[in-house]
């Protein structure tokens, strides 16, 4: 996660006209109810890399880098507090600027959350890509989707798990076993960290 950055989603392509920085400042000041003492200072702002999408496709997100981390946090907190932020009659979203890998994982979690909500089950995504579900027995948080597979299956939701995700889980377990063994003065004779990282290489 980039400390001073945030992303704004669903702002129509071309809305920024000639200057992205000034556009974002105006967007923030007109859509968010920020305290008057907040001074919006932006170092740079631009669309996510990639070709401009077709008119029927979702717009590219806007990446904003603030000069002051605390201002970025204040903007995010206010956007989340308002819950529904609109621009030109459409809902837009503010979020952290996560790494591509975390964005991928969060997108998968959001897909599962949509399926859960379609079934009337409340759920949300916690940082970085954890799934929190409100069940009849109480709330339950799953660190990864692969950990949630049995529960999701009981709820009638199928999640495809990749080989990479299985290996990542095994690596996490191996790391935990190694730490435990180190505290006991020995190491388990199981798959090494180096071997697991070999399988996880791009």
From TrEMBL:
It comes from the Eukaryota. Residues 3-94 form the L1 transposable element RRM domain. Pfam families: Transposase_22. This is L1 transposable element RRM domain-containing protein. It comes from Larimichthys crocea (Large yellow croaker).
């Amino acid at each position: 996660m980039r400390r001073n950055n945030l992303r704004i989603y669903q702002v129509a392509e071309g809305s920024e006209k000639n200057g992205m920085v000034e556009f974002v400042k105006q967007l923030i000041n007109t859509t968010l109810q920020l305290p008057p003492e907040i001074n919006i200072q932006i170092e740079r702002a631009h669309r996510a890399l990639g070709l401009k999408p077709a008119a029927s496709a979702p717009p590219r997100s806007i990446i904003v880098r603030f000069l002051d981390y605390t201002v970025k946090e204040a903007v995010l907190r206010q956007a989340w507090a308002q819950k529904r932020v609109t621009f030109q009659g459409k809902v837009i979203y503010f979020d952290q600027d996560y790494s591509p890998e975390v964005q991928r994982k969060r997108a998968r979690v959001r897909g599962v959350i949509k399926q859960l909500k379609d079934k009337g089950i409340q759920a949300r995504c916690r940082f970085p890509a954890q799934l929190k579900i409100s069940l009849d027995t109480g709330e339950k948080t799953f660190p990864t989707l692969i950990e949630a597979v049995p529960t999701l299956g009981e709820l009638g939701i199928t999640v495809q798990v990749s080989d990479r995700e299985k290996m990542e889980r095994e690596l996490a377990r191996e790391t935990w076993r190694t730490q435990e063994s180190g505290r006991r003065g020995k190491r388990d004779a199981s798959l090494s960290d180096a071997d697991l990282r070999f399988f996880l290489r791009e």
